[in-house]
Amino acid sequence: MKVGLIGFQSAGKSTLYHAAARGQAKGDVTAVPVPDPRFDQIVQQVQPKKITPATVIFHDNLDDLQGSGSKMLSQKLLDDARRMDLLLHVVRAFDSPTAPYHEPIDPIRDQNKVDDELLLADLQIVESRLEKLTKSQTVKNPGSPDYLEKACFDRIREPLESGTPLRALELSDEDQTIVRNFQFLTAKQMVIAFNVGENELTSTPDRLLSRIEELKAKGTQAFVVSASVEAEIADLDPSDQPEFLKSLGLTEPASNRIIRAIYDALGLITFFTAGENETRAWPLRRGSNALKAASTIHTDIARGFIRAEIVHYNEYLAAGSLDAAYSAGKMSLEGKEYVVQDGDLMHIRNKS
Fold this sequence. Notes:
Ubiquitin-like (UB roll), three-stranded mixed beta sheet, 14 helices
């Protein structure tokens, strides 16, 4: 799943990118592990030869947003953003004499500007397409592709004009298919990271906290983060991190919460396979069945699927090991249509 970082120059995108990658960034595209204490516990118990956590792919190669007096979204930025599954908008909320800015610092203004530009970009596509559809010979034939597309665009134009992103709309399956084909920017999930100075981590302005609550009420995850502090944490030896976090009044890096929010916003859950050769956390679309999970592991495993042996993580933790959970009767046998739950440990029995 591809996550594109967007923001104005000097907003701290690259600093947050490198911090979230925990020093493992490779160029401007990196697979970032999803922090998951459950996976850490399984690995500690199993002691496998190889561990593979769930990841999301961070892209820090999108153009900076441009300031006043020029086109804010370059065509390259628009094209690259449309290829992303989620946009992480890093908004500057810190002042610094060493990092000049094009306007006085105002995170809410900047966030609104970007939202407005993304809405406008989508609205231009809708209006342009509607203009072409009105000239179509088949647009009046109920059930024709042009008829269905025009009906969909007529429905989404008004919300876009009123400032409502497409991700906030309840669309039919048919409309969702049409919308996906056009890669609308406001149909993509978004997470907002307000990048504050270290001194505002524990004393965030009320105005910013109110905006975060407002965004969350509308279904958009938003966080306060200090990218510079996150970078300091990432540079520390893991054994020194807890004490440093405690001194800041934190229990974990804020970037961990952001990564998990991204994972959740993408509609993903995690199931685990725990083997001595490899223990792995697998991302899976929420609502997927056991056959889909099997095909995620390998298409050959799905092809020969017989049954899935399931132990939920909570049962595993209570028992202390997979063998103990099996002995306690906590394993269930499930068929292809079993809906996989977040935290399931799975072993797929197949014909091969």
